[in-house]
Amino acid sequence: MLNLPGLQVLKSLDAGGFGAVHLARRRSDQMLVAVKVPHLPNADHVRRFYREAKILHKQMDVNKHL
User: Fold this and answer.
1) With a threshold of 0.90, does the pTM exceed it?
2) What phi and psi values does residue 3 have, to the nearest 5 degrees?
3) Element (DSSP H or E) covering residue 45
4) Tens-place pLDDT, residues 28-56
5) Is residue 8 helix, strand or coil?
6) What is the per-residue burial (b if ≥16 Cβ within 10 Å, else e) of 34-61?
């Protein structure tokens, strides 16, 4: 099973060409979180990962004010 510091990985949710998404519980506060892990972390994948993270962060920030 995947070992991520501070998280208890509960199960794999899905996988695609870029990476896999896992359901995990954050140990500090027991919050359920989704964690995306790239299959092959090369320079292109890292750029795509950060771009996706920025988009998701913007969406979360907008939804917070609704």
Assistant:
1) no
2) -115, 110
3) helix 43-64
4) 999 999 998 888 878 988 888 889 889 98
5) strand
6) ebbbeeeeeeeeeeebeeeeeeeeeeee
